[in-house]
Amino acid sequence: MSFPERLVLRCGPVNAVDLALFAAASGDHNPLHLDVETARRAGFDRPVVHGMLTMAYAARLFTQEFGAPRVRALQTRFVGIALLDDVIELKANLRHADCDGALYELEAATLMGTPLASGIARIAATA
Amino acid sequence: MTDRSRVGFTTPASTVAVDPWRVRLFCQATGETDPTAWAPNAVVPPTFLKALESEHFSSAALLKLLDVPLAGVLHAEQAFDIQAPVFVGDQVEIQRRVDRIDDKKDGALTFIAVDTRYRVGERPVASSRQTILVRNQVAST
User: Fold this and answer.
1) Residue in A21, A64, A81 nearest the CB of B29
2) Mind listing the pLDDT tens digit of every residue in chain A (127 residues)?
3) Does residue B134 contact residue B2 with C-beta atoms inside 8 Å?
4) pTM of the full structure
5) Which residues, 6+ apart, have CB-to-CB distance to A33 below 8 Å?
6) From 3.40.1010.20, 2.60.40.1930, 3.10.129.10, 1.20.1050.10, which CATH number describes the B4-135 domain?
7) Which of B49, B57, B82, B136 to mutate to test the interface with A (most CBs of A within 10 A)?
8) Closest-CA distance of chain B to residue A72, Å
């Protein structure tokens, strides 16, 4: 069983259609993610990317490599805010691997370098 | 300040169908282009469970119950533990519980932790924990 040391995925730029689709798909219709005026009132220049969209991208980092059945745990702490038009980069580093599976540390950031999320993923050795 | 009397509030369990169209829409929205991801009997993407959760009892509905305006709310943390795969076509029973409400920084911030359990039939398949951050100053403007 081999686990890559490093995984990388780049997503976006996140456009208005992505945010509208994700609002519909996720059931999170908070206008903070869809409406410029609401975002401004909350102190942001542009609509805010759903944290769960960033986390879904983070999940893709692992599902594209190992398949969805092997992803057993995913945890993220959201430390920053991505906005409409941002490119989001996901990176994971292998922290531990044994015969049961692997633990990765993950980071999400905008291409401009704003940290968005950090967390861990646990991957099983087999589906 | 957020009403602490709601700590322990538990939603009545309900069952949500993992409809293929919903998984497909989720994949489309998250840039997942592999068609096997939403095929019949495919294992759903890990964070799709959160989308099912909002069909059961959304965080927006929970916040309304707690009298927290959405305006000052951000998602602080999210964790999923998956014990068994959830498949396209499954019927998932979901229940959520408000586990903690904590004020920080002299009440400027409130953290609300909500736990969710997912079952298929009698079998627990996953659990999740969402921590919601309320910026009380933004909420009140």
Assistant:
1) A21
2) 689 999 999 999 999 999 999 999 999 999 999 999 999 998 999 999 999 999 999 999 999 999 999 999 999 999 999 999 999 999 999 999 999 999 999 999 999 999 999 999 999 999 8
3) yes
4) 0.95
5) A19, A22, A23, A47, A48, A49, A50
6) 3.10.129.10
7) B82
8) 5
